[in-house]
Amino acid sequence: MLEPSTRQPQQLPKQLPKQLLINGQEPKLQPVAFMFPGQGAQYVNMGLELTHEISTFRVLIDRCSELLKPHLGIDLRHVLYPKQEQTNQATEQLKQTTITQPALFVIEYALAQLWMSWGVRPQAMIGHSIGEYVAACVAGVFSLEDALSLVALRGQMMQQLPGGSMLAVPLPEQEVQSLLGQELSLAVINGPSQSVISGPTDAIALLQNQLDQQGLEYRRLHTSHAFHSKMMEPILDSFTDQVKQVSLNPPQIPYLSNVTGTWITAEQAVNPRYWAQHLRQTVRFSQGVQQLLKQPETILLEVGPGRTLSTLTKRHSQKAIEQLVLTSVRHPRQEQSDLSFLLTTVEQLRAAGVPVDWDGCYGQTPDQQDIPRHKGQEDDAQKHNSTLLAPDQPQPESSKTFVAPRDDLERQLTKIWQNVLGIKSISVTDNFYDLGGDSLLAVRLFAEIEKVFHKKLPLASLLMAPTVAQLVNQLRQDQGSAPWSSVVPIQPNGSKPPLFCIHGAGGNVLSFRDLARYLGSEQPFYGLQSLGLDGKQTPLSTVEDMARCYLKEIRSIQPKGPYFLSGYCFGSKIALEIAQLLRLDGETVALLALLEPSPLEFSTSENQVPYQRSYSDRLKGLFQRLIHRGFQDVLKQQFLKLVSKLYQSFGISLPQSLQIIKVQEANTFASKNYVAKRYYPNPVTMFLTSERIAQSPELQKGWIELVTGKLEIQEISGKHLDDQPGSFLKDPHVELLAQKIRACIDQVIVS
After folding, report:
1. What is the pLDDT of residues 220-243, one digit of tens each?
2. CB-based contacts of 5: which residues, under 8 Å, 6+ apart?
3. Which partner from 10, 291, 423, 478 sits 20 to 30 angstroms from 652, CA to CA?
C-alpha cells in the first residue's frame, strides 16, 4: 500500500467562503465538463504527492492496483511510484501500451472520484482514446472491476500486434485523406487543422519524405504501435467477444463519443461492437470538444496528468475567449508541488462559481510558486558567474578592489596571468575577460598552467572561474575525478527555455561568453564543446557521431522539447543534424539559429561526394588569414599541426595546445566529409555578416536547397575568419547579434 504523509496539516473548512456579491446577487453556478487524456500524457510519479497527502486519492490508487494485479501480473504502484534506483526501468515500462493504458485509467479515475468527493461533479465528459473508458466508467457504463479488466486486456492485445508509427501533421481531415493511400489511416483529429496519421513504420517514413519535399511540417509521436489504424483490425473480433462478457449499462452522465464526435447514445454504449470500433476508428476529439465549446459558460477541466487536452482545446478555433479551461495535475516539466497545483485549480473553480466541499482535503492557500529551473541548475551558480552578469547589471564589488595574492599558489598563477596578458598589476579578483582576455589568450594561459602545475584544466573552466582566486580553487581540486561533459553551463539561470549553442571548428565554447552575457540573465545558455579537449578522450570525426553524443547530453539538461538550438560556423552542421534527430523522434525544434554557417553539401543521393572547396576559395581563405593574423601566426599554426602528428606517431600524450589542434583537425575532417541527406521542413534563421552576404551565393546554396521551411537571413556586423572566433562574437558587434537572437526567441515563445 502507498504510505500516507506523516505531517499533521490543519484541515480547511468544509465550505470555502462564498463569492463576493455582484450587483447584490451571488454569481450563477457554473457547469463543469471533465476531459480525460489518452496515451502520451503519462509520466513516472504523476500525482505522487497527492498519494501522500490525500487519503481519497491514495485509497483509490491502492484499490485499482490490487484489482489489476491478476490482469497485469505486477503491482502497478511499483511502476507509477518506483524507488529512486528503479526510475529508469519504470519509465521504460510506462512506455509499453500494456502498462500505459491501465496506468492512465487508474490515475484519471482516482482524480475524477476525488473531484466529485469535493463536490465538483461533471455535467458532461469527453475522453481521448483510452480516456473515453474513464468517462464511461464514471458515467456508469462499466463497473470499476469490468473497466479495469477490459483496459488491461485492450493494452495486452494491442501490445501483441506488430509495431507501427504515428505522425502528427498540421492539416485538416480533407487534405489528410489524399495522403493516406492503401496502408495509412487517419487516426486522430485533434483540431480543425491538427491530425494524426497512423500505419506501418515504412509507410510513415515514405510519407515523411513526401512531406519534406512539399515543405510541410510534421512530428513523429512517441508510440510503439499504429493505434486507431488498419493494423488494429486483427484483434477486433476477439476484443468484441471479451466485451460481451461484461455488463454494459446506459450512461448516467452525458459524454462525447470519439467514434462519432457527438454525444454517445445508450445504444452505442451498451453495444460491444462499439468498443471494438473505438480502438480502430478515428478519434474525433476536435468535433467532440466543439460540442462543449458551444456552451462558453461550461468550465472544461482536464482530469489527468499534464495539459495535453487543455492545450488542444485552447487552440481550437471555436473556443470563446472567456471560456475557462483548467488542469488537475502539473506537467512533468512544471517544478511545483502536486498539492499546490491542485489547490490552485480548486481556487480557480471556486472563484468561477463552482461550489467546493473541502471535507477531508488538506492544505492552505498555495504558496508563491517557485520560478521554474532547468535540471542542472545550482542555487549557488550565480556566485561563480560574475563573468556573465548582464551588461546593465552592476559588477560585483570584488572586481573594483585590489586583492594581492594570498599564498604561493595564487602568486604563481598571478604571474602566469601577468605574462600572458602583458599586465603588471593583477588582482586575484580581476576578471580575465575584463583584462582583455579572449579565447586565443585562454589557450596560451592554460598551456602555461599545464607546464607549471602539470595539470590539464578544461578551457571551459575559465567561464565559471574567470579570476585567479576562483581558478586556484579549480587547481586545488582533483580534476581527474571530475567527469567530462560536452555541455558547458555558461549561463544556467533564467526563466526562458534554454538555448544550446554548438562549437565551431576550434571545439571550445569560450567565444560564446559575451553572447550569453548580452542575451540577458533570464536566458539560460549552454555551450557544447568537442570531446577530446581534455586530452583524455578521442575526438569524434563525423558530424553524425557528434550529433548523437551531444543530443544525449542536451537531454540530460532538457529531457523534452520544444528545443532551441544554435550552431556557430561548423557547429551549424551539428545543430542541423541534432534538429533532424529530434524531429524524427517526434520532438519540436522551436528555433534553429545558425551563426555564420559553413558551406553545406546537400543531396538525397546515397553516393554523393562531399563538397570540396575550390583552390581559388582555399587561396582566398589563406590570403584573408595572412592579412588579419599575420604570416608568423599562420606559419605557427601549420607548424603546430606538424608537431601534433609527430607526437601521435610516437604515442606520446599531447600537451593541451596540441590537443586543441587535434580536435580542430577532427572537426575539419568531419565538416569536409559531411553530406546532409534529408530535407529540413522547419523554419531556420541564419545570421550572416554583411561581408558573407556579399560573397558568392554558392556559400549558402546547400542550405537554401535543404531548408524547405521558412529560411530567414538576418544581417549582422563584424567579420568571420576560418581559424579563430569571428569579430561578430565580440564587442561591439555581439550586442547586435544578441538582440536579434533574443527577438527570435521571444517571438517563438509568444507564438
Report:
1. 887 889 999 999 999 999 999 999
2. 52, 53
3. 478
Q: Based on the domain organization, do 149 and 282 belong to the same domain?
A: yes
Q: Answer whether residue 196 is part of any domain.
A: yes
Q: In this structure, is residue 19 part of a structural domain?
A: no
- Residue 122: which of 15, 248, 255, 28 has the closest Cα? 255
For residue 459, what pLDDT is reported?
A: 76
Number of domains in the chain: 4
Q: Which pLDDT does position 189 carry in this prediction? A: 96
Sequence-distant (≥ 6) Cβ neighbours of residue 744 within 8 angstroms:
591, 593, 685
- pTM greater than the 0.70 cutoff: no
Amino acid identity at 186: L
Residue 387 lies in a domain: no
The answer to whether the beta carbons of residues 107 and 47 sit under 8 Å apart is yes
- CATH code of residue 217: 3.30.70.250
Q: What is the pLDDT of residues 88-102, one digit of tens each?
A: 899 999 989 999 999
In a domain, 652, yes or no: yes
Contact 11, 361 (CB under 8 A): yes
Query: In whole angstroms, how far apart are CA 234 and each of 197, 279, 280, 345?
Result: 19, 11, 10, 43
- At 126, give phi and psi (nearest 5°): -150, 140
Query: Which residue in this structure is represented by grid cell 492496483?
Result: 65
Where does residue 172 rank: exposed (0-12), middle (13-18), buried (19+ CB within 10 A)? middle
Q: Which residue has the cell 605574462?
A: 419
Are 673 and 700 in the same domain?
yes
Q: Are residues 153 and 169 in the same domain?
A: no
Cα dist from 286 to 189, 260, 293, 315, whole Å: 6, 11, 10, 10
233 is in which domain, residue-wise? 32-161+228-351
User: What is the strand order of the sheet 711-716 is part of?
Assistant: 487-491, 525-528, 499-502, 563-568, 589-595, 684-689, 711-716
Q: What is the CATH number of the domain that holds 461?
A: 1.10.1200.10
- List Cα–Cα distances, 111 to 1, 92, 357, 605, in angstroms: 18, 24, 15, 53
The 3-state DSSP class for residue 35 equals strand
Residues 586 and 677 in one domain: yes
* Residues 169 and 136 both lie in one domain: no
Structure letter (DSSP) for residue 224:
S
> Which one, of 434, 424, 360, lies nearest residue 391 by Cα?
434
With H, G, I as helix, E, B as strand and everything else as coil, classify residue 59: helix
Which residues, including other chains, have CB under 8 Å from residue 482's CB and lie 6 or more apart? none
